[in-house]
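Aim 2 progress. For Flavin prenyltransferase UbiX, the working sequence is reproduced below.
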Amino acid sequence: MSDATKRRRRIVLAMTGASGAPIAVRLLQVMRRDPNVEVHLTISPSGAAVLHQEMGLQLNLRSPDLNALLACVPQWASEPAPEFDEIGPTGDERLHYHQHDDYMTPIASGSFLTDAMVLCPCSGSTLSGIARSAASNLVQRAAEVHLKEHRKLVVVPRETPMSVLQIENMHRLAAAGAVLLPAMPGWYHDVKRIEDLVDFVVARILDQIGLDNGLIQRWKDA
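Predicted structure tokens for this construct:
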């Protein structure tokens, strides 16, 4: 395939109502830096509530300020907000926003080609809906599409302790082909800041969806 016809890698990113909004926002910001990545973003109402609580960002899900989302950093961050070119209210060719209740949007269909989907953070109710194949919103429908089309689905739960029912739901998804990647940071990569722990999880997600990154010092790297 020539450079002229080669499309960008399409990644669906869904944010739901579990703790861990800083991880999801950082993941979005890192993918935005890659000109060869096209992100399709959807956020559940409970995901928006967590964004407000953990990041101080209040989004109108009918018309979200995507520039504010891309520039958002938590209050504890030691680095300033990243700089990005301004984008329009509905996104651009590399960032598309889909409303959580819009089943007519492209990512609701298996005929729309994507390379992977990341559920970050993934709430228990979202986990349950997908495991039971009982989609009640676009997030769950898009995840079911990735499973039925045998595409990479990375699920990032952030809950502790976990009940037997949650563990059973995770087992069902893993058996169906999903990658379960709990937001459990390692400590072996020369941790100095909270951001290092966030980047550990983001780096592992990016590894799973095949995107190069240099966010962390890897095990045994010089």
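The chain has one domain: 15-209. This observation will guide construct design in the next reporting period.
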